[in-house]
Fold each of these.
Amino acid sequence: MKFKASLIALSIATALAPSLVTADDSDIEVITVTSSRMGKPVSAIPNTVTIIDQEQLEQQFRTTKDLSTIIGNLAPSFSPSRQKMSNTGETLRGRTPLIMIDGVPQSNPLRSGGRSGQTIDPAMLERIEIIHGANAMHGLGAQGGIINYITKKASSDNEHQVSFDVTVPNNLESDGISFGTSYAFSGESEQLDMIGSVSYRNNGVYYDANDEMIGVDTTQGESMDSQSADFFIKLGHNFDESRLELMVNHYNMENNGDYMAVKGDKENDIPTGAVKQEQPWEAANNQVTTTSLSYTHENIAGQQMHLQFFNQNFEAVYGGGCWSDFYDPSMEGSDQVTVCGTGANGESLYYEQSRNKSVKWGMKASMIANNIADSGVNLAYGIDVFSDTTEQDMVVSGASWVPESTYENIAPYAQVDYDLIKNLTLSGGVRYEYAKLTVDDYKTLYGYGDKHIEGGSPDFNEILFNIGASYQINPSIRLYTSFNQGFGMPDIGRVLRDGDNFSGENPSIDDSLALTPIVTDNIEFGADYQGEYFTAKIAFYRSSTDYGSRMVEKEDGSGSFVIKREKSVIEGIESNITAYIGDNDDVGVNIAIQNGEYDSNDDQNVDTDLDGANISPNRVNLFWTHNFDNDISTRVQANFFMDKDFKNASDEIYSSFDGYTTVDASVAIPVYNGTLSVGIQNLLNEDYYTYYSQTVGKDTRYFKGMGRTATIGFTMPF
């Protein structure tokens, strides 16, 4: 079966749950992307997206279950995985993406925390849709694009499936063994269709290429030495012209807390390590429940209606530490805290850790009118309503670090497509964003200024536009261009909790410019070629914002970040070529090159390179898949991360990244009615430091990447 092209043009109008329609494999493969807001053929879509379908997911699962790694393997403009529970610094086109499950936001705009990448087990997914570039069709947060995890759908046949997998490190140490299992069922009756699954995964410790244990991130979150479980169910009922569907997913990931970090030395090339020792605090964990109730009707006065109500309950506990930041004289001698040391000024140091809690509610409503009055005009319009209440508190003392904050948003929108002449389609849209942030009076922690901050309810208004054109020169070649605007907020929690963001005798959140929204402009030019023997796609983009949000790690070694508001510009090229060699082989290359700068001196001119917390490395991915006549299939893939120097306004190098190359190989063999797979990640046992560790990490987060691992899996339907 031909390898589906990774880069598929997708307009800003596509979003919640696109589906793929393919022509006979004997012809040039034609892929149409449809949407619950507006469906259009590829020839009319002026943007870029990556579709990771079920076949590609299964190929990647042979070597890894880490979603960030999988996305980076197939969409190289996404940052390399940190290989941790935290996804802080993982960007798309150099900016933070909006992560969704079936259109339900998983990202936490008020207090990010870097845990939105760990909210579902990959075994529950049918495909992943990645919309590249800033856009506003789903509102808040899509500065770098949208990553939408589409969950599986019920089949007409009653069936069950079980799967098992075991991963072992190169040194075969027993504490490095990971294993997972899942069970899924699917079926339908006259009244109801249903699919459900449960999964469990136990991760051992990770080893690098030198068979040394990789260091643990006890604060932001660690995926090694952890357990995770997922429960997923989807129920649906079809009426004559409509459908009602309920989806619930509950995900829980907990670190076992059996290892402590051993501080590294970045200057002397000594990596952060780990030693078996019980953590003296609650180990980091994630608990997330996502619920969606959707209703679609195919004919209401000749229009299609799509209605979705959703909820997400999110709680993330971060690991502890012996901190000076949380020292408070009023806590001296209190039973609520545990003293673990003495600071440079004689102050007590406390064991402490924080917890993020977020509750989201929302509604998305849209109507679609196709070919209005036989004019060739298609119209999609609707309204989104969203509410997010977030707080970050301290687990030990119970103190509030980020006060309870409520973000409320209402956004009507309209999108129009028009076939101006044959093979030329114009598109345009507008979205009005009204948002209000409500925070009561509060006091920052003693170590963060000990300031009384007056609460308030600042509101924001933004009108966002998109426009595009797509021209099909001939059946094989297409050109397109588009302009899109995205809407976002800075990490509000980081702003509110730090007293340095407020000044004056009576500081108030109403006076803080750091809370101003972020509007990002994304310009894109692209070309596609789809032929019988190969496909080729290339896109150039420019992403800019006059008042962006840049993460900067504090120099105190705590691993915490502050937010800088500055102008920034990112430019890049994405390209892929896939060649079909005979009926059984696909060979391809994916390329992502990008460069980003920010304004370091507030003169409205960008002059300093964005660092690894804010932009991805340049990258080339190669792959070769082969399908044997006996249904055995193989895949070999290589990831080349290029060297990169980061320069300041004086053209001096302030940070460097030493590139590296990893190679993965896998095979899938039909056995009885199931499939046996064997995969090797980092086949050549490359010794490297991760991108994040090299460009951002300090001595406490100077982590090596994972060495060679082998995974054996078996899947059996019955």
Amino acid sequence: MKIKTTAEDRMIAFYRYFSLSLTSLMYLLDHTGPSVLYKSLLIIALFMIAQVFTIYYRRLRARPRVLMLVVSIEMAGVIALTLLTGGFESSFKLYVLNPVLIAAGSLSFYFRWSLLLSYIGIVTTFCYVFLNSEGKSFADAVLQNGNLFLALVLTVIVMQMVNRIKRQREEANARTNETMEHIKSLYHIVETSSQHDFMNIGQVITDYVVKLTKLDKALFWFAKKSGEPAPQSRQTGWQHEEERFLFTELEKHEHEWRLQREPVFKSLPGLGDFLLMPVRMSTRFVGMIGVKLESSEGLEGRRWYIQQLMFLSELSAIILERHELGVIENRLIITNEQNRIADEMHDSVSQSLFGIVYATHSLKQTWRKMSESELEEQIDLIHDSATKVAKELRITIYSLSSKKSGGPTWLGMVRSHLKSLSRLNDVEIELKITGDDFSLPYPYHKALFRIISEATGNAIRHGAASRVDVELSLKPKWIRLSIVDDGVGFDTDLLWTTSEDTTSGLGMKNMQYLAQSLGGDFQLSSSENAGTKILISIPVGVAELKNA
């Protein structure tokens, strides 16, 4: 397996070879000791060993225990090399900085200082006992090499400071990334939920609970509404056969939940320990958001889960209230539009038709008494009035129809969006449409636009595609949508199991929810380096029957 080389790895490798080259040169230029051939062979061996240690350090940086063993082995080798080539007079005495740097930058505080003190103690003792030809005291031996020891100590201290700064930066980056993911999740929840029916909003929220808490199981239990059946509760992580038992147990405590306003820890028989949070809109109690807790979670972890659930509870209440207000607003818009059309018809067409009816009734009573010219004049008057009514009716119809009035159509907005996306990202997007969307209900327009926008955006942002083909077939009873790109692709099995950690995976779930909310079918096929294909089939009219 190829290991990615970091800037830190390159810096350590550079210092290792640079210091070895300098110490080797000094060793060769020293006329005392072994022959030049022996020194050359030793230096070649040292470079080969240095290469081995460099590779192992790079591979073992994520395994500190094994890395400690390898560093200890190298330190033992450096001590032996130093003692065999003259002790404190050796040209290789500064080469000890290599394992010291590795220990100071990657391993624990106690290990790095133990390693350094072991080196100083062993080398000093050996030199004092075996290489002390001048009969110096132990203190003199230590003081004579004080500069070396001071350099080693300062190196460890500096590396500790650098390592601390590095950890602080990594923690800050991690917090920044987590915050950005939080913001993106917030955007996706609000944006996605506005496209779904009430039931699917619950599923979207449970998926995001799992994403934000990093737990395996979450739920959204809906309470009964007065005079209406309860919306279908949703969960993420449980098997289908466990779902009914889970929500039955929660329903047993409905009275308790309605009185609850704070987070509650609850143990449900046969299910485990739960953290539950009530969701309340300004007008009523909605239900409970919850997660199944792991037995290993400590108090600090549970506090963090409470914070996340409180945030998601408030957000859910806002989303659901916004959803209900949107439904009411749509009804009011339709009612106002119906009243406006009725007023227009009454003020123009209805009055004119009444005049025609009155004129024909009068003509029926008096035509025998009229001369031929008078009768012809009256018929022409009725004809002109009918022509005027037809013209007014045509103008009213054209003003209500964007297709007939030349205003922006839904298909025109889709083409304009994809054209802008293509131009801004330098990606070829081919759109093929068969059929007409004129009679397509508004919820289908809204969902299809969101799916097309999400899928093409994912293909460009996450798939790095250079071409996207969008085919939309609109028939009276069926809608079929195909979106194919030539991007990098991905493992679809991995997507559905770990998508909580990826924005693109959440986008796929959003599209699936949108298709299913209209009674449709969502199919996804992809593989690495082979692009992605999305096929969606939606029966027209099923959503209206479901919501009727």
